[in-house]
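Task: sequence design from structure.
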């Protein structure tokens, strides 16, 4: 068998659909976010408009210094899995801080948000024989992976559709364990789940709730606890999952919940037990970042103001901004080839880096630019972006807003 031909055919299939991804060869410049160097074009400066480092905390001076100090004091690696020499005082401090952030008894760290979802959901469901999982149809791939790994019976409800969710809950065996799995902020459209109403249904039908706050933690609520904190319902959610790689600017994922639930996952999740733990530098940086973000509500207010400002500017320019309740600013293109042409033009002619978002991340026909303004994207950078978009849009003869 020609194995290489099989692999090449798989790549060619993606190319033929206009979905082949080319990664920008960037070098972030410490202290100058959102500016980076483009090493595919002689190291020229470009402005990044699509980072998930939502608050620029990945280059915060206190965070970087904490990471450097940790390497100097504790070395580079963790030394093993959490169970075998890989747990440090920093793991314990950070888990306490994250539990406190969400008002929960305990937290458990994982190497990424993907792993925390895949391991957390699958383990929780496996520990409940006969569990039925109810999942929003737009849940992240990591959540879908966790559901599949669990082997549990699943029911998919239409996105944020409470009536459909209730009908599925009503049809389920009243005695069966139930887990409702959903996100707070859906990162491609920027809409928000009705958390309180879902908790009401969970109470009515005896279900647990598992909430992914990855794109909201650090950004919403008085201390950055996410939409569940903002809406005053965090105490009603069974499990709150989050990441350290977006608003906190570092790396890692976690779950929070009751001490018993978290301990059960700690004892049984392969994705936790059998992997090397996070190293001291990442833990120290994340701890410094979480503490900084929790006390700096002005940073959150500035972030929201920047997102509102950019939406208004794009709408005033007649560009097709998709509706969004949050800091996510999606601009509809509707075709993968055209989306790639647009972002290539912006990078080549204007020094603006935006990665096109295509299928399977979003449904076919809804290909888009996903803009993520931070508190460090000032008015001048926004005007530069809008002017460049208008010029590129006209150059490629793309449709404008109705």
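Answer:
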């Amino acid at each position: 068998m020609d194995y290489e031909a099989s692999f090449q055919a798989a790549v060619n299939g993606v190319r033929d659909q206009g979905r082949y991804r080319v990664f920008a060869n960037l070098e972030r410049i410490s202290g100058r976010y959102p500016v980076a160097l483009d090493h595919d074009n002689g190291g020229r400066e470009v402005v990044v408009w699509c980072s998930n480092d939502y608050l620029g905390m990945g280059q915060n001076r206190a965070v970087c210094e904490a990471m450097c100090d940790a390497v100097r004091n504790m070395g580079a690696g963790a030394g093993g899995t959490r169970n075998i020499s890989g747990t440090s005082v920093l793991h314990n401090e950070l888990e306490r801080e994250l539990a406190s952030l969400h008002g929960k008894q305990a937290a458990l760290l994982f190497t990424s948000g993907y792993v925390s979802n895949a391991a957390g959901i699958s383990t929780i469901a496996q520990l409940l024989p006969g569990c039925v999982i109810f999942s929003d149809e737009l849940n992240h791939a990591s959540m879908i992976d966790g559901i599949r790994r669990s082997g549990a019976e699943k029911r998919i409800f239409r996105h944020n559709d409470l009536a459909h969710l209730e009908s599925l809950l009503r049809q389920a065996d009243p005695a069966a364990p139930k887990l409702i799995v959903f996100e707070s902020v859906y990162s491609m459209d920027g809409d928000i789940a009705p958390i309180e109403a879902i908790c009401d249904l969970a109470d009515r039908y005896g279900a647990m709730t598992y909430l992914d706050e990855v794109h909201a933690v650090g950004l919403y609520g008085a201390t950055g606890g996410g939409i569940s904190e903002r809406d005053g319902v965090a105490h009603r959610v069974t499990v709150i999952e989050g990441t350290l790689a977006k608003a906190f600017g570092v790396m890692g994922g976690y779950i929070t919940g009751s001490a018993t639930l978290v301990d059960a996952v700690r004892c049984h999740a392969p994705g936790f037990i059998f992997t090397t733990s996070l190293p001291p530098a990442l833990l120290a940086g994340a701890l410094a970042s979480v503490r900084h973000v929790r006390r700096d509500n002005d940073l959150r207010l500035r972030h929201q103001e920047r997102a509102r400002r950019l939406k208004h500017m794009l709408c005033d320019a007649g560009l097709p901004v998709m509706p969004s309740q949050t800091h996510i600013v999606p601009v509809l293109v509707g075709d993968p080839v055209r989306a790639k042409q647009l972002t290539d033009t912006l990078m080549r002619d204007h020094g603006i880096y935006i990665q096109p978002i295509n299928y399977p991340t979003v449904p076919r026909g809804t290909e888009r630019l996903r803009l993520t303004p931070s508190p460090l994207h000032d008015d001048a950078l926004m005007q530069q972006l809008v002017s460049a978009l208008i010029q590129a849009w006209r150059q490629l003869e793309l449709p404008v807003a109705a």
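Residues 49 and 270 are 36 Å apart (CA to CA).
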